[in-house]
Design brief:
- Keywords: Capsid protein, Virion.
- The protein has about 90 residues and is mostly helical.
- It has one domain.
- The protein is about 60% helix and about 0% strand.
Amino acid sequence: MNNRSKMTDQQQLYHDIGVIDFVVVEMTEYLDTHPTDREAMEYLNHYVRMKNQAMQEYAMKYTPLRISDAQFCKKGEWEWATTPWPWEGGC
């Protein structure tokens, strides 16, 4: 049994967001030196959409990770400052 199978759904989604974010950062750095690479730009755009979707899903299921996703929180409460962050054990 690997560590991924021991993760909760919340932990798995948070992990996936981190992986997607890594790709986004790496692609923006690549595009800094290859600004005319259209295929890389399409790749970046794909992963930016994936990240936004995952961030919205996280906000809807758990709590927003960024203030711009607070609108997707379905709990009807302002939890921004009252719930523990993932790095504080919130996952």
